[in-house]
Design goal:
It contains eleven helices and two strands, in the order H-H-H-E-H-H-E-H-H-H-H-H-H. It is an all-alpha fold. It has two domains: 2-227; 229-262. Belongs to the TerC family.
Length: 262
């Protein structure tokens, strides 16, 4: 209990909780998009599985944190000698070549997760543009498929979240508390966010574009090229601000048109 009285505990908890909430945006957007094709109780059940399943998975990963850390220490295989220099160019530094050449379990998980997001995002954008989303949703039972997708992407995002937590603090209690608090925030925001995205098609397209960006970032991480997440969050925040202004302008024009019609 003495640790609770130390400023370091509360500073670490506050910083890590904020970071976990920010990292949870990726997870929350995907949950909102994935459950969009479900209706009624199935949608609520899938949302709960997506949000609370992420928390349980992250706590389990934190409990086995030493095993998680080892995922990035022992390469499973390496590309043939010379491939990295050929692809990256002769001017690439030794560290970049090494990161690109050797693949660990973590790299493969990030690659698989990134490719999954790229495929899923592309499919959803195509369905939205072609107007086939609802017909396909009605034509087949998607509940189990959505749960499977949520499980796969929770593994990828949880791995990223846990590794970030380890880099912020070495106090397990702080890590678990930050995950629980950030999950509570996600649980509160999940339904309003999903409803808002569903009501505004342009916001859904923006969310799908962000999912594609995250997919590219994960693939890059898996190949040894780290893209600072701040760039992604700034891009989506800027786009979100512009789109909110557009929505406000459209509603004002619609209200003016209705008033003129009467």
């Amino acid at each position: 209990m003495d640790i609770l009285a130390t400023p370091a505990f509360w500073v670490s908890l506050s910083a890590l909780t904020f970071l976990e909430i920010v990292l949870g945006i990726d997870n929350l957007l995907f949950v909102s998009i994935a459950i969009g094709k479900l209706k009624g109780k199935q949608q609520d059940q899938a949302r709960r599985v997506g949000v609370w399943g992420a928390m349980i998975l992250r706590i389990i990963m934190l409990s086995g944190i030493f095993w998680i850390i080892q995922l990035d220490e022992h390469p499973l295989f390496a590309l043939p000698e010379g491939w990295a220099a050929l692809i990256l160019g002769m001017s690439a530094d030794a560290h970049a070549i090494e990161e690109f050449t050797y693949f660990t379990i973590k790299d493969l998980i990030l690659l698989a997760g990134g490719l999954f997001l790229l495929v899923k995002g592309t499919q959803e954008i195509h369905a939205s543009v072609q107007g086939t989303h609802h017909e396909e949703a009605e034509a087949k039972n998607d509940f189990n498929a959505v749960l499977l997708q949520l499980g796969v992407i929770n593994i990828v995002f949880s791995l990223d979240s846990v590794i970030t937590a380890v880099g912020m603090t070495d106090i397990l209690a702080v890590m678990i508390a930050a995950v629980v608090i950030s999950t509570l925030v996600m649980a509160i925001a999940a339904k309003p966010l999903a409803e808002y995205i569903e009501e505004n098609p342009t916001m859904k397209m923006l969310a799908l574009a962000f999912i594609l960006l995250v997919g590219v970032a994960l693939v890059a991480d898996g190949l040894g090229f780290h893209i600072p997440r701040g760039y992604l969050y700034f891009a989506i925040a800027f786009s979100l601000g512009v789109e909110l202004l557009n929505i406000r302008a459209r509603r004002r024009d619609e209200a003016a048109a209705e008033k003129a019609a009467h």
